[in-house]
Specification:
The chain is an alpha+beta fold. The chain has one domain. Helices cover about 15% and strands about 30% of the residues. A 3-stranded antiparallel sheet has the order 4-1-5, covered by helices on one side. A two-stranded antiparallel ribbon has the order 2-3. Strand 2 and strand 3 form a beta hairpin.
Amino acid sequence: MANLVKVRLAEPNHRMPDPFNPALDFPADGKLVDVEDPVWMQLINDGSLVVVPAPAKKSIKET
């Protein structure tokens, strides 16, 4: 099963081809990727991409 997380370029002004579609640049605002895929794992581990923290969930207080 895929482990999808949002990643973005580590350096916002850097351009990198999308590994699975080299005709396109990796989107500057990031995208969802499967972090268990070796290609994405390598790009995260070498610092080309960083994982975007998930937004904090708002707790619902009961009254």
